[in-house]
Amino acid sequence: MNGALVLCRVLHYGSALVLFGVGAFQGWLAPPALANSLDAALWRIVRFAAVVAFLSALAWLFLASGEMGDGWSDDPITWYDVLADTEFGHVWQFHLLLTALLVGLVLSRPGGHWRLLCVLAAFHLGGLGFIGHAVMLDGAEGWISRASHVVHLLAGGFWLGALAPLLLRLGKIGDAELRLEISDVLRRFSGLGHIAVAAVIASGIVNVALVLGQWPTDT
C-alpha cells in the first residue's frame, strides 16, 4: 500500500503543478495572440490533468484511510470518519471540492477560461501545504511552516508547470506573426522564473530549518 500511496501522491502533485503552471502562463504571462495560438491543445492537457487530479485525490483518501484502518477492507464509514475527524480529512474536504470545481470547469468549457482556472488551481495546489510535514509543528512555527510550504508549492508550480506551454510556444518561433510575442513571453518568464526559483530555494531552506530546529549551515 505504501508504494501505491507514493504513486498516488506523485500523480496528484504532478497534475496540480500542471494545472497551476499552465493556467498562470496562459492567463497572465502570454500575450493574447500567443495564448490563443495553442489554446485548444493546452486546454486538452489541463482536462487530462484535472481528471488525474480528481482520481488521485480520491485514491489518496482511500489509501490514507486504509493506513489508518484495516487496509483495503475499509468501507465508506471509515472514509467519512477520516474526513470528519482528522486534520487531513478537514483539509481534504476542501481539496476535493476544489478538484471537482476544476474538473467541472475544464470539462464544461471549450477553453479560454485561463485566469479562473489559475485562481482555482492556486488554491488547489496551495492547499497541499496544509497536510503532511507542513503540519508537524504547532503554534507560530506551525503557521510559518504552512506558509512556507504554500510558497514552495506555488513558486515551484509556476516554474515547472509553465515550462510545457513555454516549450510549445518555442515550436512556433518560426512564425513571423508570433515572433515578437514569443520574445516578449521569454523575457517575462525569465524574470518571473528567477523570482520563482529564489522563492523555492528560500522556502525550502525555511522548511529544512523548521524540521531541524536550526538553520542548515553545515557544509
TrEMBL record:
Keywords: Membrane, Transmembrane, Transmembrane helix. It is found in: Cell envelope. It comes from the Bacteria. The keyword Transmembrane applies. GO terms for biological process: copper ion transport. GO terms for cellular component: cell envelope; plasma membrane. The chain crosses the membrane at residues 12-30, 42-63, 90-107, 114-137, 149-168, 189-212. InterPro entries: CopC/D. The keyword Transmembrane applies. PANTHER family: INNER MEMBRANE PROTEIN YEBZ. This is Copper resistance protein CopD. It comes from Mesorhizobium tamadayense.
